[in-house]
Amino acid sequence: MKKFFMTFSILTALVCSGAPMRGAVCFTFDDYHGPNWLKADALFKKYNAHATFLVSGEITDAKAAVMKELQKRGHSVGLHTEHHRDATRFIQKYGEEWYFKNELKPQLDACKKHGLVVKNFAYPNNRRDERTDALLWKYFDYLRAGWGKAKKPLYFPANKIENKMVLGGGGIGTYYNTRVEDLKKQLDEAARTDSVIVFFSHNIAPGAVRIHMPTEVLEELLKHAQSINLRVIGFDELTKFKTSGK
Ligand SMILES: [Zn+2]
Questions:
Q1: The domain 23-244 is classified under which CATH number: 1.10.10.10, 3.20.20.370, 3.10.180.10, 3.40.50.720?
Q2: How close is the Cα of 16 to the center of ligand 1, in Å?
């Protein structure tokens, strides 16, 4: 009898825990598509997944409410500047103080007013350099950029995730010529190497084209991530993920 229970509990443990989770994928969405982002939450929920939403433009009361709701549902939010001006070009031309006053401060003030804690940022048009990073790290922890000129996937080893980082991601959408089969292979590689891979897109809608994420593609990727035990997490979960190693 005792033996039976032991076997039973081992089996239960195996079934419940499954294979260990390895690596993570961070899907990020830029600009502002609040109503559709909220609509997509059901899909993320179905796969126990979270994303990061990076908002540009004036943070109105309505936008702040959506950002709060997304946070409440376990997602991460961040900022993407007041007027979507390239950090590199405008800082070179007008300096850090000007960029802070015109592109960052209005959004940061609005977040403060609404009690929103925001530690993530996405570079407009993914344009960054060391000078812009130095300014932005004063206000944010994770700075989302692109994969760079080579357009090669970047994999960030889980044990090297830091509290402040630039996280380069790849675009998903017809404009970026992404193919689901390639994306799945990139997820496989992140799991295999216990690394974090980052992607960016904008709206989420059925049949979306150009720079936007088709809902069908998102579901296929979420399903694939689940099948290979790859976490799907928001930027706010990265530090926890690093320290727990789980
Ligand atoms: Zn943008």
A1: 3.20.20.370
A2: 40
